[in-house]
Every structure is written in structure tokens, then in C-alpha cells.
Amino acid sequence: MAVPKRKMSRSNTRHRRAQWKAATPDLAPVFIDGRRHLVPRALVRAYQRGLLTPED
Fold first, then answer.
1. Region Disordered: start and end of each range (predicted)?
2. In degrees rounded to 5, what are phi and psi of residue 14?
3. What are the extents of the domains in the chain?
4. Strands 35-40 and 27-32: what pairing?
5. For the chain, first and last CA: distance in Å?
6. pLDDT of residue 44
């Protein structure tokens, strides 16, 4: 495991942590009951099979 040789300053620590941001998921269009819905790409199959229902 990597062990730092020197203490990292608070400014550098916070600057590094600020780069960890959650990315918005890719939304794909899905037609359910004739209406177009935007759903996360990973869940398209579940919506098409009726396992999930979009809230609108």
C-alpha cells in the first residue's frame, strides 16, 4: 500500500477531493405506452420489459 512521505496540506487535500464529482447518467429515450421517456441507459431493458415504470 502506498504511504505518503510527507503530510499533505489541507489546501491540497481539499483541492484533490473537490475533483471527485458524480457524473450525470446518460439518458436514453424509451417509448412506453406511446410516450417518450428519458431513462438511464443501464435501465432501458428493465423499462422495456415492464419491470420499472417511469414517474411522470
1. 1-20
2. -70, -35
3. 26-56
4. antiparallel
5. 48
6. 95
